[in-house]
Amino acid sequence: MQGRGLGNKSLEKAKKEIDKLREKIRHHEHKYYVENQPEISDYEFDMLMKRLEELENLFPQLITSDSPTQRVGEKPVEGFPSAEHIPPMLSLENVYSYQEFLEFHDRVARALPDEPVEYVVEMKIDGVSIAVQYEGGILTRAITRGDGFKGDVITENIRTIRSIPLRIKETRAVEVRGEVFMPDEAFEKLNRERELNGENLFANPRNATAGTIRLLDPRMVSQRKIDAFFYYIFIERDFPRLAHWENLQLIKELGFKRNEKIWFCKSPDEVLRIWEEWKDKRDSLPYGVDGLVAKVNSIAQQRRLGNTAKFPRWAIAFKFPAKQAVTKVKEIILNVGRTGAVTPVAILEPVQLAGTTVSRCTLHNEDEIKRKDIRTGDWVTIEKGGDIIPKVVSVVKSRRTGKEKLFKMPRHCPVCGAELYRPAGEVIWRCPNVACPAKRRESILHFVSRNAMDIEHIGEALVDQFLNEGLVEDIGDIYYIKKQDIENLERMGGKSAQNVLDEIERSKKNELWRLIHGLGIRYVGEKTAKILGSHFSSLDKLMEAPYEELVLIPDIGEKVADSIVHFFRDKGNLRIIKKLRKAGVNFKGGKEEEKGPKPLEGKTFVFTGELSKFSRSEASSIVEGLGGKVSSSVSGKTDFVVAGQRPGSKFRKAQQLGLRIISEEEFLKLLSEIGQVLQ
Ligand code: IVH
Whose C-alpha lies nearest to ligand 1, atom 9? Predict the structure, then answer.
């Protein structure tokens, strides 16, 4: 009791300052937590609080329960006594469609013949109901909804919510009712922390809120960032104003946080319009809402409509399509995608969710299953996010019977049996076999696609026919299809069959990058394929390239290099490449002038002897880059024979054939002339 000895004068002075400080702090708390419009910095606010704490420490006799310093109790409570609700806290009847909402409206209209009915529409906050009482302007009690007649007194916890005033400017008995909720951001942060600590995750913000307000230690509650919106007010156990809209106004005037998304509607149509708009927009709010609540505005009309045992007849919850549902995991299977990603998928007991029946749901990967501890036979909460793909949010552990089975990721592809691999640093297992039937259709479609081998006339329908008739099993077989086979297919005449064959034939001459892209090597998209196609003089060189060499190529990372090496190790892939080679598909690559003119187009070169300025393969790349062809043997079709030092038998043959033989210098001169022409 340090303050005692300081005399009345200083006590009075302190009281004055304390009162002023509290008033200021309340004002700024309201600005910050209720209106979201702070007028001072956090630092300035903290300084005010610090000063108040100092003074209260000096004069503890001046501490009152409504002081802003007294929000968080210092010790856990021993339990929650129960208290009665007068009047009872009713629940709401739900409707899910406009049809049902109209039925509600008809009932209302029939009970109020010849009277206009106006609705106040509010957001239905996905939280936990609460009643907060004030006497003489001071917060005295906060009670959970409980069964509607009786709830738990959780005053200490509710006091920690900074937007709830501890004191109001109304001295009569006031009760406000509303919804405590946890904003999405706080929910996600909480779950992240729980995950790090190895604690069970909350399935949704509502569960997190319910769990939080029942914590015995208010100090823990104060760290959880929950908040509250109020939508009801009683003064001396009655509505203070004659219309709900006006009561909502009073709630705000008294300093409570009210949800500002409220509408005044004169017809059911207007309600529908708000519902249509917000069912798609609800994710834009920083807290969860699960529908709208439409309430008859006139309190007199509300009284005449009355209540059933459970629900008011003058209000309805017009729910948005559910985004969460609880269902059972019947089985966990594996799905193999085009790129070979092997994804575990939960086969679910079919359940309605946001307007569709959900019977399967991706579990993403092995780690995710472990993290969420999902087992076959588990009851799980599933959810549709903004992307409309359902996901498992959490397991309902309380429904476990002990018969649930742990999931173990198989080591072999469930479809073709190839050994799965998991690239370094990744969470997804992959099937390396390009001929894996599961990947077949997609890999063929990718091979023929415009940005790969660009084989026109082969689309989804034809690929399906090829597969069904057993004409192709993998991309290599495309080059062995016979005209007759195609002609015999449905909707295929001789002419279209020939077109398809011509296209297939043409594709054999494609540049190497198209083939590399078409193979469907994981992480090798068009851009990477082009880099590889011009870096390597042939597919064989790429196939032989070790990881260490691949990672040295600009723009080729470790992940890509690793994937390439794995691809060419797979026996199935090698078989396909053999087929492509035998069919005469171009395997030759090298530097290409992307779009520019091809001055050596149609010219065939043969190199013989040692070159001094470049290697044989560099020289070949240059010629090919300019559109020319490099052949390993001389023939009547050879245009230039480039003879280096100590030329071999090709030189003699060229002489015999009377071909044009040039030296390395002449070759260089030719190139520089071409360069000038190109400039
Ligand atoms: S009015 C007598 N308005 O929804 C009418 N309830 O499903 C009582 N809720 O128990 C409720 N937002 O917890 C009302 N704007 C809102 C609401 C709302 C959420 C909750 C409330 C109620 C439940 C009924």
Answer: 124
Superfamily name and number for 604-673: BRCT domain (3.40.50.10190)
Please tell me the distance between residue 617's alpha carbon and the centre of ligand 1 in angstroms. Answer: 77
> If we measure between CA atoms, which residue out of 121, 162, 109 comes closest to residue 139?
162
Q: State which fold the 437-583 domain adopts.
A: DNA polymerase; domain 1 (1.10.150)
Mean pLDDT computed over 468-476: 89
Residue nearest (by alpha carbon) to ligand 1 atom 7: 92
Q: Whose CA is nearest to atom 23 of ligand 1?
A: 91
Q: For 293-402, where are the alpha helices, taking DSSP H only?
A: 299-305, 366-372
- Give residue 176 CA to ligand 1 midpoint distance, Å: 13
Candidate from 125, 182, 282 with most ligand 1 atoms within 8 A of CB, to mutate: 125
- Interval between CA 123 and ligand 1 midpoint (Å): 9
Q: Is the pTM for the entire model greater than 0.90?
A: no
Give the pLDDT of residue 385.
62
Give how far Cα 440 sits from Cα of 1, 139, 317, 420, Å: 84, 69, 50, 17
Identical fold, 437-583 and 604-673: no
- The pairs formed by 576-582 with CB atoms below 8 angstroms and a separation of 24 or more are 576/434, 576/435, 576/474, 576/475, 576/476, 577/476, 577/519, 577/539, 577/543, 578/476, 579/474, 579/476, 579/477, 579/479, 579/480, 580/475, 580/476, 580/479, 580/515
The 10s digit of each residue's pLDDT in 509-566 is 999 999 999 999 989 999 999 999 999 999 999 999 999 999 999 889 999 999 999 9
What is the model's pLDDT at position 388? 62
Mean pLDDT of 490-496: 80
Averaged pLDDT for residues 169-177? 97
Domain boundary assignment for the chain? 8-70, 94-319, 324-399, 437-583, 604-673
637, pLDDT greater than 80: no
Q: Which fold has domain 94-319?
A: D-amino Acid Aminotransferase; Chain A, domain 1 (3.30.470)
Distance CA(141)–CA(143), nearest Å, equals 7
Look up the CATH number of domain 8-70. 1.10.287.610
Ligand 1 atom closest to the CA of 317, numbered from 1 = 7
Which pLDDT band, with edges at 50, 70 and 90, does 679 fall under? very low
Distance in Å, CA 111 to ligand 1 centroid: 23
Which residues are annotated as catalytic?
124
Give me the CATH code for the 324-399 domain, please: 2.40.50.140
Q: Taking CB atoms and a 6 Å cutoff, what residues make up the pocket around ligand 1?
A: 90-92, 122, 124-125, 129, 145, 179, 231, 293, 312, 315, 317
